[in-house]
Amino acid sequence: MSSPFKPPLPSSSSERVAYIDGGSRGNPGPAGYGVVIQDSQGRTVETLSKRLGTATNNVAEYQALLAALEYAGRKQLRRLKIYCDSELVTKQMQGRYRVKSPELSPLYERARELASRLDHFSIQHVPREQNRQADRLVNEVLDHGASTPRLPVHSFLAVVEAGKLRPLSPTPELEEGMEYEVRARKRIK
Question: Which residue range forms the structural domain that includes residue 108?
């Protein structure tokens, strides 16, 4: 078994990494996208997802890319690294494939325009199994038929002591008395 994919981490707070995915059930069929935004420490800071109605898989992939680029614009980020499991979108954005589809051409042009506003933009193809979080968001939005809330996701390490979680580092600001969904994964040292 190969080691898990570890992308290089950005070195500045104005940099983000985005894992993007789009999907269509039927191609064309019900479609949606998912985007996982991570900070320079590899922590998920936000997730974006949306049901698109009827579209092709390639349109959904471009919509995911546009959502990540629009997020970068709203947050005034200067650098964005995209990981995408669509070879077509990746190679088109890298200039290695021409955009022949009239359906994709305006999406491609918009993505190029938004990317040109950044000081640094890059996009890299990753295998689907290394893009599971974004894929999960796509399936959730397609299964539930609506956009998922655009709430930030907080990630931190903790230990269990006397049946309670104790954070090992400063935690993000969590509201007292609010209910949070917690997913635990045992860390192997």
Answer: 15-155
Q: What single letter denotes the amino acid at residue 140? A: E
Phi-psi region of 72 (alpha: psi -120 to 50; beta: other; left: phi over 0): alpha
Residue 100 lies in a domain: yes
Cα 46 to the center of its chain, rounded Å: 8
> What is the total count of domains within the chain?
1
The first and second tokens of residue 124, run together, are 């890299």
Judge whether 124 lies within some domain.
yes
Return the bridge partners of 125, or none. Answer: 84
The CATH number covering residue 60 comes to 3.30.420.10
Looking at the domain assignment, is residue 137 inside a domain? yes
pLDDT given at position 167 = 79
pTM: 0.73
Cis check: omega of the bond before 28, within 30 degrees of 0: yes
Residues of the chain with pLDDT under 50: 1-11, 148-150
Mark 61-100 as b/e (b = at least 16 C-beta within 10 Å): bbbbbbbbbebbeeeebebbbbbbbbebbbebbeeeeebe
Reduce the DSSP state of residue 25 to 3 states and report it. Answer: coil
What's residue 2's pLDDT? 40
Q: For residue 2, tell me if it sits in a domain.
A: no
